[in-house]
Amino acid sequence: MKRIFLLVAAFAILACQSVSAQTTIDPTADYNRATLMYQHRSFDGTGTNGFELGYIHGFSLSKTVPLFFQTGLKLDMGFSSDDADVSGVKVTGKLKTMSLNVPLDLSYKLVFGESKTAAFVPYAGFNLKLNTMGKMTAKASYSGVSASESTSLFDAGMKHFQIGWHIGLGLQINKVFVGADFGTDFIKIADGGNHTPTFHIGLGYTF
Predict the structure, then answer these.
(1) What's the CATH number where 198 sits?
(2) Which tens digits make up the pLDDT trace of 62-76?
(3) CB atoms inside a 10 Å sphere around CB 135
(4) Alpha-helix runs per DSSP H in the chain
(5) What's the gap between Cα 160 and its chain centre?
(6) Alpha-carbon distance 94 to 88, whole Å?
(7) CA 189 from centroid of its chain's CA atoms
(8) Could you report the per-residue pLDDT of 142-162, keeping only the tens digit for each?
């Protein structure tokens, strides 16, 4: 968790510096963006909270129209825990997931304001997802005695690969990016599972 807080602090510092320094936004220029997002995902009926760390490059598709193809790589981490007391036995269950995502988006950079230092950036597209970890750990404690067991969700039918869609909207001010998106997967997380609807909101730095 300390690493997450350090990343958030670093993004906040960059954001404060960027807002104070006026930067004109070129509506048709390529861009790079690093992002740190809060993530909530419905994982086969279990809500997981976590973060997404990503890098995006926007390729200009026209010299006159601010239309872009953007792609990159994103790392998602999700966490969930639940406690229960069954006849004096304390049971704790923890879920941890990790995936790598490649977005394939079209985006539009709508620059506004007299100083041209702000822009709305709507985007939509598809994503290729590689699930690299799905781990469930259960721990039972009774009268000072405890036992735990971990299970890979891949052994229970979790799929390694998914394809999905998403739609989002961002606001860039100077070099600071604030955005949110929502999407689901066409391929279910497991046979009989759900389409893992996912919501992100967070900050980015454009360079």
Answers:
(1) 2.40.160.20
(2) 999 999 999 999 999
(3) 14
(4) 2-20
(5) 18
(6) 19
(7) 17
(8) 877 888 888 999 998 999 999
Q: Under the phi-then-psi rule, with left for phi > 0, alpha for psi from -120 to 50, and beta for the rest, what region is 14?
A: alpha
Best CA proximity match to 52, nearest among 31, 32, 73: 73
**Look-up: residue for tokens 């994982």?**
43
- Give the whole-angstrom CA distance, residue 27 versus residue 96: 40
Q: Which domain holds residue 190?
A: 2-206
Token representation of residue 129: 């997802």
Residue whose structure tokens are 């998914």? 162
Q: What is the pTM of this model?
A: 0.84
Q: CA–CA distance from 188 to each of 84, 103, 167 (Å)?
A: 28, 18, 19
The answer to whether the beta carbons of residues 50 and 37 sit under 8 Å apart is no
- The H or E element that residue 29 is part of is none
Q: Which two tokens stand for residue 184?
A: 């689901």
| Number of domains forming the structure of the chain | 1
